[in-house]
Amino acid sequence: MDPLSDLLRVAEVRGTLFSRARLGAPFGVSTTGSAEAAIFHVLTRGTAVLRTGGEAHALRAGDLVVLPHGDAHELVEGDGPMVPLRTLPAVSSERALPCVVGGGAGETTEILCGTFRFGPAGRRWLLPLLPRALVVRRGDGLTAAFLEATLRLLEHEAVGGAAGSDLMVARLSDVLLVHVLRAFAERGDAGWLAALADPHLGPVMRSVHQDPGADWTADRMARAAGLSRTVLFQRFEATMGRTPADWLLDWRMTLAAEALRTGDEAVASLAGRLGYGSEASFSRAFRRVHGLPPATYRRREAA
Predict the structure, then answer these.
(1) For the chain, how far is it from start to end, CA to CA, in angstroms?
(2) Superfamily of domain 198-302
(3) Over pLDDT 90: what percentage of the chain?
(4) What class does CATH assign to 3-189?
């Protein structure tokens, strides 16, 4: 499995599309955000400006904006009065998503609204990398071309409400996040994600993800990267802000936490599978990262 797929699997990301909005210009709607989930909006028609935390992002049909940290924000077009989104009336149908309506009598903007929820590994590995707002624009490279096709399918399922549409909407929402992360990684300033595209760090990361329990010494990582040890360490720290050993430890303990949380594999077996010569050394490493012994962590997660 490639590193991004591996990360998204352990991150337990779940996308949900919860409503549509049909707003006539001029309009202004505000929301207090969410402390529990990332928020995304997809413009399927018209234009709007998203404002959050002093930033403003002009959006047009086909654009996707994600607020990874669930920040409060506003969507505006023109000089209409600002109203809380929750106060607008919603039109419901038997199958399609409910549609919030409001604004003036001018050009219509239509928006799909949803959330991404992250499990513990997602909050640990993904969220710290992501900015307050992330915009992927229609027509902006190959990733955006795939995104456009996904958005057309998502809109069709959200509006049509055919049999199985709930499952389709959920899966397509997950696919949206992959498009977003790909686009963000391509910009080259995304830390862990940018390392995947690095011609030297990428092969190291893919090799470790394929066999996390191997004896990953500094020399072995350097050979996989095609670099000297010194240059590998410099490149790792410049891109990811940590040493290769720290990254390896953190990833192994992420896999360990997932296994303890979701399965019943014995701690000794898990230690060997992740490259530790003894249960004691594994337990020390796990406690260093997660703050408690593996057995205690398993009991807490099962409670």
Answers:
(1) 31
(2) Homeodomain-like (1.10.10.60)
(3) 50
(4) mainly beta
